[in-house]
């Protein structure tokens, strides 16, 4: 933290005191968006019971939040250019807080899902442009440390979400999962109005048709992935239809972006090899992490016999490892070439994934804990430098687009990973051994995805070494 307050002659970014206040705002937005998912996730059985709906129907409380966010990330990143990121970020916070109030007062599932969709829009507005604001707030020489602190904050929210949700449900009804957002959110809005850097709006025309095509293509893709594992029961027709809609919409979107002078997503950013390789690395690494996160509960509960609460605590070493590795990776990336730090972190992550895949049916609890911690440490060590590379490889005026791509790639990597695990586990039989083999297969596939990320990351060494000199 002391380094983030330092000042040198010629530094860009904000003055140290305003820098820290602005960072507190961005950390608050990340905590609200991430914590909300993890707290509500653990409450789905309670929500289903108290609203009198099926468990399958209650899952839409989570799904619609993520679907709307995934479909609108690129649109919000572009809208930040049009109206200014100051207005958009605070507007996203206001929507998130107001819809928290609405969710707490929702009389039935239909209204709750509708308000959660709007809440997903508020979260997407914050998450899509948050990383780009770090480029404005911090000097380039401290960007890696700032990204590391962000990863640390998100990991804390991931680790604390299930436990905090459990405590709230033990003391109060499920609406309090949303009531608690109000005082925290109001305080964050008050600070954001005073601390975030002001930006003027830009007069160029906003591409409404491009935004609609983007939302349709990305949204159809996410729904297709969610539907793919159940295709054996529902038929392949709906999956094929969604795939066609996604491909046609995204093809039309790309063709339109090439023609416009002020496109929603400037495709020229992908000509920068450092940026493109960082994007590909991020996709495969988040795919690998999602495969582990989705498959491990089956291993812990269905095969090894842990309770859901015990399973939640067995996950804790992973985000704790990220909390250690991310700040360290960020500091190292400010001093050394980011791809080198990424490679070390990904190699450690691959080792951790292999160790988890080799757990077997009756491992000691300590074996699970230290292997999960290795995964988290490696992922954290990789994540902050790679995010720094994505945000720092483009000119400052392109940081909004980079931020939207970063958020979208993370979301879609997680969606593809979850769909692949569902596809693998759809063949699970009743025998515990076959369950263990299926989960292990999912973990090995995740490890293979992490290896692809490592190969992509190390290919950046072929670029001119001078391009990685730190400002």
TrEMBL record:
<feature type="transmembrane region" description="Helical">
    <location>
        <begin position="368"/>
        <end position="384"/>
    </location>
</feature>
<dbReference type="InterPro" id="IPR036259">
    <property type="entry name" value="MFS_trans_sf"/>
</dbReference>
<keyword id="KW-1133">Transmembrane helix</keyword>
<feature type="transmembrane region" description="Helical">
    <location>
        <begin position="88"/>
        <end position="111"/>
    </location>
</feature>
<feature type="transmembrane region" description="Helical">
    <location>
        <begin position="441"/>
        <end position="463"/>
    </location>
</feature>
<keyword id="KW-0472">Membrane</keyword>
<dbReference type="Pfam" id="PF07690">
    <property type="entry name" value="MFS_1"/>
</dbReference>
<feature type="transmembrane region" description="Helical">
    <location>
        <begin position="235"/>
        <end position="255"/>
    </location>
</feature>
<comment type="similarity">
    <text>Belongs to the major facilitator superfamily. EmrB family.</text>
</comment>
<keyword id="KW-0812">Transmembrane</keyword>
<feature type="transmembrane region" description="Helical">
    <location>
        <begin position="312"/>
        <end position="329"/>
    </location>
</feature>
<feature type="transmembrane region" description="Helical">
    <location>
        <begin position="405"/>
        <end position="429"/>
    </location>
</feature>
<feature type="transmembrane region" description="Helical">
    <location>
        <begin position="117"/>
        <end position="137"/>
    </location>
</feature>
<keyword id="KW-0813">Transport</keyword>
<feature type="transmembrane region" description="Helical">
    <location>
        <begin position="20"/>
        <end position="40"/>
    </location>
</feature>
<keyword id="KW-1003">Cell membrane</keyword>
<feature type="transmembrane region" description="Helical">
    <location>
        <begin position="176"/>
        <end position="196"/>
    </location>
</feature>
<feature type="transmembrane region" description="Helical">
    <location>
        <begin position="208"/>
        <end position="229"/>
    </location>
</feature>
<feature type="transmembrane region" description="Helical">
    <location>
        <begin position="275"/>
        <end position="300"/>
    </location>
</feature>
<dbReference type="InterPro" id="IPR020846">
    <property type="entry name" value="MFS_dom"/>
</dbReference>
<feature type="domain" description="Major facilitator superfamily (MFS) profile">
    <location>
        <begin position="22"/>
        <end position="467"/>
    </location>
</feature>
<protein>
    <submittedName>
        <fullName>MFS transporter</fullName>
    </submittedName>
</protein>
<feature type="transmembrane region" description="Helical">
    <location>
        <begin position="60"/>
        <end position="81"/>
    </location>
</feature>
<feature type="transmembrane region" description="Helical">
    <location>
        <begin position="149"/>
        <end position="170"/>
    </location>
</feature>
<dbReference type="InterPro" id="IPR004638">
    <property type="entry name" value="EmrB-like"/>
</dbReference>
<dbReference type="InterPro" id="IPR011701">
    <property type="entry name" value="MFS"/>
</dbReference>
<feature type="transmembrane region" description="Helical">
    <location>
        <begin position="336"/>
        <end position="356"/>
    </location>
</feature>
């Amino acid at each position: 933290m002391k380094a983030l307050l330092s000042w040198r002659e010629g530094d860009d970014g904000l003055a140290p005191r305003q820098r820290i206040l602005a960072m507190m705002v961005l950390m608050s937005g990340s905590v609200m968006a991430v914590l909300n998912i993890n707290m509500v996730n653990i409450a789905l059985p309670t929500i289903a019971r108290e609203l009198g709906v099926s468990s399958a129907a209650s899952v839409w409380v989570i799904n619609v939040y993520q679907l709307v966010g995934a479909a609108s990330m690129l649109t919000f990143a572009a809208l930040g250019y049009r109206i200014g990121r100051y207005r958009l970020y605070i507007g996203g916070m206001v929507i998130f807080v107001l819809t928290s109030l609405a969710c707490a007062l929702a009389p039935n599932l239909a209204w709750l899902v509708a308000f959660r969709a709007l809440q997903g829009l508020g979260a997407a507005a914050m998450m899509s442009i948050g990383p780009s604001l770090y480029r404005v707030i911090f000097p380039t020489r401290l960007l890696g440390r700032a990204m590391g602190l962000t990863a640390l904050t998100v990991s804390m929210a991931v680790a604390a979400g299930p436990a905090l949700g459990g405590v709230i449900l033990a003391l109060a009804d499920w609406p309090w999962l949303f009531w608690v957002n109000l005082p925290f959110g109001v305080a964050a809005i008050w600070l954001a109005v005073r601390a975030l850097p002001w930006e003027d709006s830009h007069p160029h025309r906003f591409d409404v048709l491009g935004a609609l095509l983007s939302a349709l293509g990305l949204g159809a893709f996410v729904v297709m992935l969610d539907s793919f594992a159940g295709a054996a029961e529902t038929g392949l027709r709906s999956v094929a239809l969604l795939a066609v809609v996604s491909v046609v919409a995204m093809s039309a979107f790309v063709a339109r972006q090439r023609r416009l002078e002020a496109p929603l997503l400037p495709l020229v950013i992908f000509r920068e090899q450092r940026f493109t390789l960082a994007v590909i690395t991020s996709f495969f690494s988040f795919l690998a992490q999602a495969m582990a996160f989705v498959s491990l509960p089956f291993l812990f509960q269905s095969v090894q016999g842990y309770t859901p609460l015990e399973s939640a605590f067995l996950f804790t070493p992973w985000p704790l490892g990220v909390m250690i590795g991310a700040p360290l990776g960020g500091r190292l990336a400010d001093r050394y070439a980011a791809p080198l730090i990424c490679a070390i972190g990904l190699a450690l992550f691959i080792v951790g994934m292999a160790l988890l895949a080799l757990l077997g049916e009756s491992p000691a609890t300590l074996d699970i804990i230290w292997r999960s911690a290795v995964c988290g440490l490696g992922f954290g060590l990789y994540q902050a430098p790679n995010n720094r590379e994505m945000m720092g490889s483009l000119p400052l005026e392109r940081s909004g687009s980079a931020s939207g791509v970063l958020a979208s790639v993370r979301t879609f990597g997680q969606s593809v990973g979850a769909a692949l695990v569902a596809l693998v586990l759809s063949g699970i039989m009743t025998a515990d051994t076959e369950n263990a083999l299926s989960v292990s297969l999912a973990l090995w596939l995740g490890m293979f995805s992490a290896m692809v990320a490592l190969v992509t990351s190390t290919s950046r060494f072929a670029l001119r070494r001078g391009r990685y000199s730190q400002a």
